[in-house]
Structures are given as structure tokens and as C-alpha cells.
Amino acid sequence: RVGTRGTKTRGLCPEPGFAEHEKDPEYWRQQAQAALRDALRLQRLNTNVAKNLILFLGDGERSRCGGDTRPGDRDTGMGVMLAPPAGMGVSTVTAARILKGQLQHGQGEESQLEMDKFPYVALSKTYNTNAQVPDSAGTATAYLCGIKANEGTVGVSAGVTRDQCNTTRGREVTSILRWAKDDGKSVGIVTTTRVTHATPSAAYAHSANRDWHSDGEMPPDALQGGCRDIARQLVENIPDIEVILGGGRKYMFPKNTSDVEYPGEEKHRGTRLDRRDLVRAWRESKAPGKVA
Hints:
Strands 5-3-4-6-7 form a 5-stranded mixed beta sheet, covered by helices on one side. A two-stranded antiparallel ribbon has the order 1-2. It contains 8 helices and 7 strands; from the N terminus they run E-E-H-E-E-E-H-H-H-E-H-H-H-E-H. The chain folds into 2 domains: 9-86 and 125-246, Alkaline Phosphatase, subunit A (3-Layer(aba) Sandwich); 87-118.
């Protein structure tokens, strides 16, 4: 299988598999801490506390974690932004730079993108623990939770096998959204896709399959095993998220419920088998005037 990572090879194609220690979240945390220590030894970095953190995530999604600074906090800047769009490797950036220059009637290579003017730049390795070419579920888990994971899984360590509900328990990992909320900050998710999509869902959900948007998309063995769909986790895992804006409304409503915006279109009807109205449940859990 081309594209899988492995320790054994047969011809030119590696057999699926990865090192056992990659299943341990602490392995990735220690690597991150070591990288930070090395960076601090090389140069004096800005260690002030930002007022806000905004993550512009791949495929157009955005997750925002922010809040006012507290007395005594060091604060010399407005915030920090991370913008990792999908498929943005060196070759894509190079093509964009050339196109910009040619649109300005130059050769292209001599042009500069705004990011080329940044005082500090770096490269990152993007892969899933079991795939050389990653998907947005595993990568979202990596940059939101700090843990590399298997392809197709969100908010869990590499000890979880895709589609296998019984491998999930005890292998959940928390995200920067949870850390910010636990630190008393206001948090929210704003996305141009469905709020249960792999990228935003890694901020709040723990699932063996990125496609388990509602219980209507889950196999019987997963439901019987006690795994919860991603839409339900959005409402239950971090119930005090201040703002949730995005699509995917049908995963919040009982099966065959007509959509308020597209009542005549079958593809937009509700998909939930448990007959729950998650939008109502979320709104009722909020104080009046505190719902978005």
C-alpha cells in the first residue's frame, strides 16, 4: 500500500504499521517540550501572554479561543494567529509566489508573498501515524491537541483504530479549546463547513471515525459499545462553549425532520436516530441572552 507508514517493507511498498511508542500521547508531548527548549536556547523568544488566540484551520474552518487578560499578565501584543490551510506545502507556496509575480508582469520567482516577510519562519512535518499523506482529522488532532494520531480519528491518540469504538476509552486527548476554557477564557468555534467536520471537531470530540457526525452515521456495534456521535459530543463534552457558528444542522435534529431553510430537500433532513433536538438542548443549557 503506497502512502502507509511501516517498519517492514516488501519491495518498494511498506506494510502498514508504526512504532508502539507513538500510541502514547506523552511521547509527542515530550517531543514538543524538547523542541521548545531547543528553540529557547537558540534565541530569546517572545514569552509574553497574548490576549487572544485565533486558529484559522484548514479548509476554511476557524476556531477561536480568547479572553481578557488578568491583572499581572504580561501583555505586549493583541494575539496569536495560526493559519494552516489544507495542502499548503513548499511547492504550493512556490507556485503561489510565481503566480503573484507573473500577474505583476514579472518572471515570478523574484516576487515575495507577505509570509516571506515574516521575521521567523519554520517548516513542519505533516503525517498521520499510519499514513504518509495525512487527512484533516489526524492533523487537526495534532495541532489542536499536540498529539499525532491515526488517519480518520479525531481527539484520540494513535492507540485508537479507525472504526473500532472499543479502542477509544482511555485514549481521549484534550485540545487547546479545553485548555483555554479551563483557564477561564471565552471560547468558540466558527467554521464555513459543518461544525462536526473533522477539523473543528478535534477541538471538542473524541471519535474513532471522523464521519460519525450523528448516531445515524454510526454502525450498530459502535452505538452498542457506548461511543457517542460527534454532534452529541459538541453539546455534552464542553457544554459552556460560548459561540458555535457553522453548518451541519441536519446532524442536530431527529431523523426526517424538515430543515428550516430547505424544507423541501430530502438531503437536508435530520439524521438523528435518538430523536434528540441538540440545538434546543444546547440553547436550554444557556442563560437567557447567552446563546449564539
